[in-house]
Amino acid sequence: MKTLKERFQSCDLITGMHICLSDPAVTELCANIGYDFLWVETEHSPMDYQNVLMNLIAAKAGGTPAIVRIPWNDAVLAKRVLEMGPDGIIFPMVSSKEECDRAIAATLYPPLGNRGFGPQRAVGYGLKSADEYVKKTSLDMIRIIQVETEHCIEYELDKMLDNPWIDCVMLGPCDLAASIGKLPDITCSESVRLQDKALSKIRKAGKSAGTSIGSTDQRWIRSWFDRGANVISCGTETAHIINGARNTLQMIKGELLTSDEGGMV
Predict the structure, then answer these.
(1) What is the pLDDT of residues 105-131, one digit of tens each?
(2) pLDDT means per 10 residues in the chain (265 residues)?
(3) Which phi-psi region, left, alpha or beta, contains residue 34 (left: φ > 0; alpha: ψ -120 to 50)?
(4) Angle between helices 97-105 and 75-82 (to 10 degrees)
(5) What angle do CA 106, 81, 203 make, to 5 degrees?
(6) What is the pLDDT of residues 163-196, one digit of tens each?
(7) Which of 109, 118, 119, 227 has most Cβ atoms within 10 angstroms of its Cβ?
(8) What does the mean pLDDT of the chain come to?
(9) What is the pLDDT of residues 71-86, one digit of tens each?
């Protein structure tokens, strides 16, 4: 059976969902649903490092790999997350080859990169071999960059895709729309043109191409697959709670609580 990283590298169909809350019980529940990975969100959530750690432990308890999006493309922000031993890391707003190479270097020990040594949970707090972690386990981590600007897609993406350590390039449709002054219209013709151009470049380079969307709209999700994305992280635990609660409430109000006379059934 392929590992998740191998599935990314062979451009298989991969689905994830976002974790934005700090409650590990919710994360453990979500990890039991059957998604290929959980996207632990720290760029736009109030999570601190302890919350991230608890979510990683919960995801493992539920048997689903966890990939953490850090708040910014910064080696210091990446380091503490890497020491927790996530299955992967996502760098947001990567806009040039230089920024791409800097992000990837932060995940690799010398001489391949410049990651400082000091893994904690990543080596079982010392119970696992540090030598094996440096030479194998740390290399097996999934590395994802996120492309979110018009300039990057038009002028930098081709050069960025030459980096052999990138397992996936994710598009950020909202910030991409913002870069052309169209936020929040992520389905306008210019936004879609840029999305399609990026997807084409990424797949031509033999990399997994994906997107992160908060929506659970089936038609919107399907459109991404139809246009060439093979990795989609869609919906959040909050969105799924809201959708489920609303659907049940609408069913009760519409079918059970009212009679033809407007009273209780």
Answers:
(1) 999 999 999 999 999 999 999 999 999
(2) 97 98 98 98 97 98 98 97 98 98 98 97 97 97 98 98 98 97 96 98 98 91 96 95 93 72 39
(3) left
(4) 30
(5) 60
(6) 999 999 999 999 999 999 999 999 999 999 999 9
(7) 119
(8) 95
(9) 999 999 999 999 999 9
Is pTM beyond 0.90? Reply is yes
Q: What is the 3-state secondary structure (H, E, C) of 153-217?
A: HHHHHHHHCCCCCCCEEEECHHHHHHHCCCCCCCCCHHHHHHHHHHHHHHHHCCCEEEEEECCCC
- CA separation for the pair 28, 148 (Å, rounded): 30
Query: What does the H/E/C string look like for 46-65?
Result: CCCHHHHHHHHHHHHHHCCC
The residue type at 86? P
DSSP bridge partners of 212 = 233
Say which residue the tokens 């895709």 belong to: 161
Distance CA 147, CA 99 (A): 11
Q: What is the pLDDT of residue 215?
A: 87
> In whole angstroms, how far apart are CA 53 and each of 49, 58, 62, 66, 78?
6, 9, 14, 11, 13
* DSSP sequence for 68-131: EEPSSS-HHHHHHHHTT--SEEEE----SHHHHHHHHHTTS-TTT--PPS--SGGGGGGTS-HH
- Judging by beta carbons within 10 Å of its beta carbon (0-12, 13-18, 19+), is residue 57 exposed, middle or buried? middle
- Asked, as a colleague might, if the bond just before 119 is cis with ω within 30 of 0, I would say no
Beta strands at 14-19 and 88-91: parallel, antiparallel or unpaired: unpaired
Could you give all domains of the chain from N- to C-terminal order, each with its CATH number? 4-256 (3.20.20.60)
Could you tell me which of 100, 92, 105, 113 has the C-alpha nearest to residue 43? Answer: 92
CA–CA separation, 149 and 172 (whole Å) = 8
